[in-house]
Amino acid sequence: MTKRKKYTTTLIFRGHLAEDLHFGPFCHNWWISRPSEKINNPCLLYPIRIQSKLLVTLNGHDFIIEVGQLESEFGPHPSYICKCDGVQSEICKTPSTAITMVYQKIFQTKTNFSGPEVMGYDTPELVQEYLYELPFQVFNYSFNKLRIWILGVGKSNNENFNFAGPGFKSAFIHSYNRQRSIFFQEVEFSECRITIYTEGNRLKKTFVGCDPNSVWNQVGYLKQFRGYQLFGLDNQYVQNLIQSIHVPTCSLSDWTNEHLMTLVYKHHLKRRTSAQVNWQKLFKDWISHENTIIELRSALQNLYSKEYFRFWSRSTNPNADKASLATLYTLGFLNPIPKYFKNNTETFWQCFKDSLDANACGNNGKCRVLSIIANAFSYEAIKENLKVSNDAILAAKKHAYTCGPGGQIKNKPAITYEKMSP
User: Fold this and answer.
1) Residue 201 within a domain
2) Does one domain contain both 166 and 201?
């Protein structure tokens, strides 16, 4: 049995996970197997957390290792920088290169280091830190000459999907049109999807079918295997995971149970909801209403900001539509009023504010001008657009009531009193 050297490694900053990196098409770059578990099948993987920082003591010197991100010909990739005693490595693709580079410069030796071991992937305490708040521990296994990665599991009652459901994702690397390509596979509510990426992070093609077999028939590659096998749905370990999933449900009486509602939300809605939305508010408001019926569309709109837009595409290549929408947004055409069009509402408020600023304080000045619109808009709208106080608005409302909107204060008639003698 090979002896492994033990290192004194301290995690300074845990770093974080990124959905598009760790559970997306280029996940192969962001997970690592523990040195002691490489031969396992299936092999559990551990995340390389972006922006993590470690300290390791080597030969009495403290080395700092920082994890970043760089773009490579095979998609987003971790980058590593090592520092010690004023010596810093270049941006490297592997921790082994970064550590070895700095160590050799300081000690003038040819000593080499295993990056994963130095970073503590064989240290139980550090491994638990790497697994912190991990939604799913990715693993891979050998199938024929392929290495299939399972990035997430979901459950359904659909026999055509081998009971997999939304959230199931898998991937493997294989050639497509004589190019090294990533086959990224997803199970959705009523369809299965395969997206193929080639070198340089380029989307090659997307296929959609009613089940794993039909979608792989469209791809036309690896015909010697069934779609279920290529998706990873016939693997016993995968099936055990799927069957162990408990699909959370709730009834009206459970709406106040925050823990259960959070489980239901994560399983059914999280992938389809903006992270900025306070989704609990919908249920809290609904259950507090005397009326049991709500208009759902308007209730959902109230949860989102005015700047939020959602688009649906029927394209087989939705990434092309995504690029078009990004261009439209950059040009200002996805704003409620495009920035290159005349915004009459904004013009109105700006002109009114200029008029207020040009007048002096007092009943025949700012108060009189503000009285023109004081009863036509809410306190909030006037305060937000004109930056005036509640007292100023109240005075303007009184002015409008007494003299009319924008009316001039009439001078009171001079009254002369004369005492009449008897």
Assistant:
1) yes
2) yes
Among 71, 30, 34, CA closest to 47: 30
pLDDT of 307-365, one tens digit each?
676 777 766 666 677 778 777 777 766 666 555 556 678 888 888 888 888 887 777 78
Is the preceding peptide bond at 42 cis, omega within 30 degrees of 0?
A: yes
Q: What is the pLDDT of residues 203-250, one digit of tens each?
A: 789 999 999 999 999 999 999 999 999 999 999 999 999 999 877 788
The token pair that represents 300 in the structure block: 């959902």
Closest of 163, 165, 167, 185 to residue 239, by C-alpha: 163
Q: Has this prediction a pTM greater than 0.70?
A: no
For residue 279, give every residue at least 6 positions away whose Cβ sits within 8 Å of its Cβ, in sequence order, or none: 265, 269, 273, 303
| Residues 116, 46 contacting (CB under 8 angstroms) | no
SS3 299: helix
Per residue in 142-173, pLDDT tens? 999 999 999 999 998 899 999 999 999 999 99
19 Cβ contact list (under 8 Å, min separation 6):
none
- Find the domain containing 198 and state its range: 139-244
Give the per-residue pLDDT at 1. Answer: 43
Average pLDDT, the chain: 87
Report CA 42 to chain centroid distance, whole Å.
29
**How distant, in Å, are the alpha carbons of 21, 46, 92, 95, 391 from that of 67?**
14, 15, 10, 9, 55
Phi-psi region of 220 (alpha: psi -120 to 50; beta: other; left: phi over 0): left
Tokens 């007494």, located at residue: 402
Q: Does residue 309 lie within any of the structural domains?
A: no
pLDDT at 29 over 90: yes
Domain-located, residue 145: yes
Rounded to an integer, what distance in angstroms lies between the CA atom of residue 383 and that of residue 325? 34
Is the pLDDT reported for residue 73 higher than 90?
no
Confirm whether 171 is domain-assigned. Answer: yes
To the nearest 10°, the Cα dihedral for 57, 58, 64, 66? -110
Q: How far apart are CA 187 and CA 167, in angstroms?
A: 7
